[in-house]
């Protein structure tokens, strides 16, 4: 009998931690992740709490497309994801660059990033101003623009580059740690 390699069973886990961000449309992003059991156990031991009791979040960062890796994001949004392993973010904007962190919040409410995603750029929308669409139609199609401006103006008061740092992501298995 012929056995196709395509009938192989997907592994239940990938045995390493990862996060991947993808663009579904100019207004929707999809992110999925996995935190390896070893990392979950290490974090649970550090915080002296079971992994299932720790509040889990995905923090989305929006950048103007032409910015470089070390510029401040135009917007940050935290979404509590509980025990999910993927999430649709439906508040994206066209022609923006996005990244996401998966992490927890500690007892003081500080976000502790555990995984950092790739960057993904949302495409132009058919409602973009270059398409000669009346401004009233644009506002009806993109009511979130005002929220983006509001978040951008308040971000400068609360932004800290140290929020983006995590000691958990510095070390890999190749540096002597054993699985």
Automatic annotation (TrEMBL):
Pfam families noted in UniProt: DUF4912
Protein known as: DUF4912 domain-containing protein
Species name: Paenibacillus aquistagni
């Amino acid at each position: 009998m012929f056995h196709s390699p395509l009938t192989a069973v997907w592994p239940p886990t990938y045995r390493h931690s990862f996060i991947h961000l993808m663009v579904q449309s100019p207004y929707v992003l999809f992110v999925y992740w996995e935190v390896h059991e070893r990392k979950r156990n290490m974090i649970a031991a550090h915080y002296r709490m079971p992994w299932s009791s720790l509040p889990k979040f995905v923090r989305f960062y929006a950048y103007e497309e032409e910015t470089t890796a070390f510029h401040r994001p135009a917007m940050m949004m935290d979404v509590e994801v509980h025990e999910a392993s993927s999430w649709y973010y439906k508040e994206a904007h066209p022609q923006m660059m996005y990244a996401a962190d998966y992490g927890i919040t500690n007892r003081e409410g500080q976000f502790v990033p555990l995984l950092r995603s790739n960057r993904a750029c949302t495409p132009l929308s058919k409602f973009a101003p270059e398409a000669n669409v009346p401004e009233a139609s644009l506002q009806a199609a993109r009511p979130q623009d005002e929220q983006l401006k509001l978040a951008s103006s308040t971000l400068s008061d609360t932004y800290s580059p140290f929020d983006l740092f995590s000691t958990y992501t510095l070390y890999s298995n190749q540096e002597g740690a054993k699985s």
